[in-house]
Write a structure and sequence with these properties.
The protein is an alpha+beta fold and about 220 residues long. About 35% of the residues lie in helices and about 20% in strands. The radius of gyration is 16 Å and the shape is globular. GO terms for molecular function: Atg12 conjugating enzyme activity.
């Protein structure tokens, strides 16, 4: 099996291999999870997620499951160095579980992972709509309903405009939100494991670091598949 040769950077071939591997791993293992689909198109890895939100007053739009994910973010930081070899044991920390929600309190989030040619790391793009009205979501609601509370302040303070911005997606050309990838290599360098990483392990590590900023966690069923 090939390994990532220039960690924390990843090449186009390594990125493609990682996305194909995660797509294969996801086949027939998404039931009872909040992931609705995983598909590699040859340019981007598409992950469709059903996200439960809270419509109760005083919750700031963050669901019970979402608050749990926010609390778990700190635990993830403590175990991230071991997440490749101990991923199954740590799965209970990061398990998002299935979001069994009615059509009145859900968001459908369309994640797109592409390779940034400038920074040579994956970049996370996403868009979402409320169900059943299919209305687009504002940036303020993104921070309220997708970003775990402990991460919100630090993510908003990145640069001048914050860590989440909107632009035209490089593949679809549709307006989408994205997480700035400029500091990803530095963040991954801190988590560099002692052993070499297979491309899929690199992608899992990256998702644990970057995906968790907007509540995108790999379901434990996939880690044990």
């Amino acid at each position: 099996m090939c390994s990532v040769r220039a960690f924390p950077a990843i090449t186009e071939d390594e990125f493609s291999a990682a996305c194909k591997a995660l797509e294969r791993r996801s086949a027939d293992h998404l039931s009872d999870t909040d992931w609705l689909g995983v598909r590699w198109t040859g340019e981007e890895l598409l992950i469709r997620q059903r996200r439960k939100i809270s419509l109760c007053s005083g919750d700031n739009g963050v669901a019970g499951d979402q608050r749990k994910d926010a609390i778990e973010t700190e635990a993830e930081k403590e175990v991230i160095e071991d997440m490749i070899e101990d991923e199954v044991e740590d799965a209970s920390i990061k398990d998002t579980r299935a979001s069994r929600c009615s059509e009145d309190d859900c968001l459908i989030v369309e994640f797109s992972i592409i390779l940034s040619p400038t920074y040579c790391v994956p970049a996370l793009w996403f868009s979402c709509q409320s169900v059943p009205h299919r209305q687009p979501i504002t940036l303020d609601r993104i921070y309220e309903q997708l970003v775990p509370q402990p991460s919100s302040a630090s993510l908003r303070s990145v640069g001048v405009l914050g860590g989440i911005s909107m632009a035209h997606h490089p593949v679809s050309d549709l307006p989408s939100f994205f997480l700035h990838p400029c500091n990803t290599q530095d963040a991954l360098s801190v988590l560099k494991p002692d052993k070499t990483l297979a491309p899929e392990d690199y992608l899992i590590l990256w998702l644990g670091l970057i995906g968790s900023a907007v509540g995108l966690h790999i379901p434990s069923k996939l880690l044990s598949a």
